[in-house]
Amino acid sequence: MSNSIMNLDKYKKDILSFKSKVASSGCKYNAETWSKLSAPHKKVIADFKEKTITRAHVIKAYEDYYKNGKNVLRPFLLTMIWGFADTGYGTHRTNKYIDSKDNLKHIKESLDAVKAKDIKTAFALLKKIKGLGISYISKVLYFASKAVTKDYVLIFDIRVARTLININTKKEIADLVNIYPSDRYEDYVAYNKLMHDLAKEYKVDADVIELFLFDLNKNDNE
User: pTM of the entire structure?
Assistant: First the structure.
């Protein structure tokens, strides 16, 4: 029996089934959906046109950036496409994130901070980008940190946040409130500790727990 503040024992078999799904989880880069990206930005990710972008692909893009220091927008754009998929509004939001030299500076400096294992600074830099919320801040931090360390941080989005509440609260109560992930750094630290503690308990990688929780709440959209 689990001694954790969150008991996932009844889901143990399901959790273990996600061990083989993490690297391949992703979405297709639909060029039509993302047609309003500028030509130079499209060129950066042209090799993925009409192909599936997986977690493994995005992590490799960060690894490549850390090796050669080139095309800082390539991993960032792949993260946005992976996250927004074919929602339709992803292009508009992404264009806003990369529309200024200041934002590009924040992106580069945040990735540099991740490489230095300074997640707090990276988090603060990404928060300076107007409209970039915790869901996508944490996506960037997850992929970037996964590229450089085993002590990576995790994605914290609305579906995961709501699953955390649904598992620990009676449905009749959970349905009465709107749940969103906190954007406070201290809460993000606590969330990551919880995920890594659960991962140790169930003997899986931490992103297996995160993907399981995300999948468990399939009906929620960001």
Answer: 0.93
